[in-house]
């Protein structure tokens, strides 16, 4: 555990500047909200900058993981020359990104409360619905962000492997794989088979005036995504252990 | 024991190592010599498990060399790079946390010998001091194999002297084997027991230094001048 926690602290240090910059940017979003409030009459506008900022957080963990991996690229032999299994090296970066994401979202939530609560009378009809949407969206942002971070790690590892073999064409292959996998995923998730496998454990959500349509999710869908994420993570760890060179 | 069997390593546009087979005996200091681009660093990375052969096999202590070979082999890269976010002291602590064979007391001794300031940020270190740091972090491990890639390259004579002293004082040849690459053949000749000479990625010769001196009456540099042209 001491081995991994030291790795975790090192990974935190590699990305902490970006993390703190993100927190400052959340503060700027709060300032923007106050400016918008003064400029417009629509009270729902209060939610817009916060909603956009929360949405952008989908890219948070993949972004942090990529920054961390890019830093490691400069010390590749140091990073790879480590007795710990690759899955531990990668997990450290992912957990770092996830913790930073949760802190950043919590900070954004706190700022939103701070800005909106004194003006509650302006948005009272939307208040409860907005927070319900928030509680639905935040875990999904974390979920999607975690999944995308594994994809980023996989593509990075593949690029590291390919660049020593095919040189600059590696980027073209990575772009091709990204487009192809997106297309296959879209094809798969719209197929009857996917529906048959995943459409169980249904849950419906209603959010009143904010989102008039009923949302439906399936436990089967989450299980499917989880299996895909774990599978891709294992493949990435194998690539780093056996194919990436320092 | 390190064993290489018909090892070839190809990159996108060139072949770095061509069909090399050799066995590195334990308890010795071995120098890997050769011109620029002869494959010295690649050979060391293959032993460290940081590069994989395109064909053939590399084994360290009977196990296929891969990234986890780091358990048996302490490797120091040519570039002298280390995480700039750390101070010298933090780098020692980090290295100690990762490698169970890292000897903290030994690291402290080498740090003093190399005159490194433990509170100094690595990003603020000069090239020479980064070289010393790398050597310190590598020699403080009590791994069976110590692999040093160009430890003397681009360093001033004082730093070279400190590094050579470190290699002599802190490598225990009863339990450790030191393999290093170097352009500075003259400088390492007095240190090494044997040498592996590479030419254009192929094994040119593997021999004892003493044998070369006694049988052919030549120093390595002279022998290289004679046979490489």
UniProtKB/TrEMBL annotation, chain A:
Name the source's superkingdom. Answer: Bacteria
Transmembrane annotation, as ranges: 12-32, 44-69, 90-112, 132-157, 169-188, 221-240
User: Which key words tag this protein in UniProt?
Assistant: Membrane, Transmembrane, Transmembrane helix
- UniProt protein name: Uncharacterized protein
Q: Which organism is it from?
A: Paenibacillus zeisoli
């Amino acid at each position: 555990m001491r081995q991994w926690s030291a790795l975790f602290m090192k990974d935190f240090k590699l990305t902490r500047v970006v993390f703190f910059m993100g927190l400052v940017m959340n503060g700027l979003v709060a300032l923007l909200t106050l400016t918008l409030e003064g400029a417009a009459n629509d009270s729902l506008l209060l939610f817009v900058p916060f909603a956009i900022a929360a949405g952008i957080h989908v890219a948070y963990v993949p972004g942090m993981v990529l920054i961390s991996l890019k830093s490691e690229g400069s010390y590749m032999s140091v990073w790879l020359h480590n007795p710990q299994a690759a899955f531990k090296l990668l997990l450290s970066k992912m957990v770092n990104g996830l913790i930073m994401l949760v802190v950043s979202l919590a900070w954004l939530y706190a700022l939103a409360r701070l800005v909106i609560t004194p003006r509650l009378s302006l948005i009272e009809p939307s208040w409860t619905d907005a927070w319900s949407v928030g509680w639905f969206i935040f875990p999904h942002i974390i979920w999607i962000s975690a999944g995308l971070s594994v994809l980023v790690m996989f593509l990075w590892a593949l690029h590291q492997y390919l660049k020593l073999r095919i040189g600059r064409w590696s980027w073209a292959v990575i772009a091709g794989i990204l487009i192809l996998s997106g297309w296959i995923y879209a094809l798969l998730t719209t197929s009857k088979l996917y529906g048959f496998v995943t459409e169980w454990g249904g849950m419906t959500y209603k959010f009143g005036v904010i989102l008039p349509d009923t949302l439906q999710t399936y436990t089967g869908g989450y299980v499917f995504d989880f299996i895909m994420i774990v599978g891709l993570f294992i493949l990435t760890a194998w690539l780093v252990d056996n194919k990436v060179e320092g | 024991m390190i064993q290489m069997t018909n090892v070839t390593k190809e990159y996108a546009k060139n072949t770095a190592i061509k069909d090399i087979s050799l066995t590195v005996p334990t308890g010795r200091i071995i120098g890997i010599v050769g011109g620029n681009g002869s494959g010295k660093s690649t050979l060391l990375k293959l032993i460290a498990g940081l590069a994989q052969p395109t064909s053939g096999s590399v084994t360290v202590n009977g196990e296929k060399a891969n990234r986890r070979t780091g358990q048996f082999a302490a490797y120091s890269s040519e570039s002298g790079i280390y995480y700039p976010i750390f101070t010298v002291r933090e780098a020692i602590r980090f290295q100690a946390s990762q490698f169970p064979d890292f000897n903290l007391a030994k690291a402290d001794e080498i740090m003093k010998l190399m005159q490194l300031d433990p509170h100094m940020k690595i990003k603020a270190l000069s090239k020479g001091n980064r070289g010393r740091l790398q050597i310190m972090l590598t020699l403080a491990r009590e791994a069976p194999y110590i692999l040093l890639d160009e430890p003397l390259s681009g360093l001033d004579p004082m730093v070279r002297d400190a590094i050579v002293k470190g290699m002599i004082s802190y490598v225990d040849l009863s339990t450790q084997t030191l393999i290093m690459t170097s352009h500075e053949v003259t400088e390492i000749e007095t240190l090494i027991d044997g040498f592996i000479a590479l030419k254009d990625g192929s094994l040119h010769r593997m021999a004892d230094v003493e044998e070369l001196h006694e049988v052919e009456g030549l120093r390595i540099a002279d022998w290289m001048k004679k046979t490489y042209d």
